[in-house]
Amino acid sequence: MVKISINLLPKEFALEEIKKARFYKIQAAGVAIILIMIFLASLTMALRILQSQNITRVQARLSAAEQQVNNLKDTQASLLLLKNRLSLIDQVLNSPSKEVLMYKLMDKLIPAQVIVNSVTIGKAGEVKFTAVVPDGQVLENLLVNLTTNEKNDNKIAQVSIETLNRSRGGLYRVNIKVKPK
């Protein structure tokens, strides 16, 4: 069966209802768009806050890493300094000094009969010693040993007798200065 519809309302009223329905649809669409915009804005703000927190955490980790690097730089500098000092100490211990070489040379060159009272050796290896010699022959042997290149291994450049005294008992007191090559 066919329905019959009777409309007793004026046409203007129907047009106005259609306009109101369109207005409500437009209004609903506008509200939906505004709500979507508010949602997107709040989402953007939330992401911004999260990124700020992440940046703060990363900066804190970066500053901690920089502090650790600075501490390691200080440690590295200390280790480098210690390494250089140990290398220098090792070099000094492994290479005999001029003083030690001159002590050994003087021990070899001074005859057993000579009584050495004092020995002074400078950093350059310069030797000054005071000795008591029992007789002229031993004094001559001492001077020959000091001045002959074959006996002193060509390590002595100059020998100077600073003082020479003879006592009544025949003992010689002598101050000698030796310069190495």
Give a structural overview.
With 181 residues, the chain is of the alpha+beta class. It has two domains: 10-95; 98-180, 2-Layer Sandwich (Gyrase A, domain 2), CATH 3.30.1360. It contains three helices and four strands. It has helices at 11-94, 98-109, 136-147, and strands at residues 115-121, 127-133, 156-166, 172-180. Strands 1-2-4-3 form a four-stranded antiparallel beta sheet, with helices on one face. A hairpin with a 5-residue loop joins β1 (115-121) and β2 (127-133). The longest helix is centred in the first third of the chain and has 84 residues, at 11-94. It is rod-shaped and about 170 Å long.
Produce a short descriptive summary.
This protein is an alpha+beta fold. The protein folds into 2 domains: 10-95; 98-180, General secretion pathway protein M, EpsM (Gyrase A, domain 2, 2-Layer Sandwich). It has helices at 11-94, 98-109, 136-147, and strands spanning 115-121, 127-133, 156-166, 172-180.
Observed structural traits:
single chain, alpha+beta, 181 residues, rod-shaped, 60% helix, four-stranded antiparallel beta sheet
> Which structural category do the helix and sheet elements fall into?
alpha+beta
Helix percentage range: 55-70%
Tell me the major beta sheet. Answer: 4 strands, antiparallel
User: Number of helical runs?
Assistant: 3
List the helices and strands and how they pair.
Layout lengths: L10 H84 L3 H12 L5 E7 L5 E7 L2 H12 L8 E11 L5 E9 L1
Antiparallel strand pairs: 1-2, 2-4, 3-4
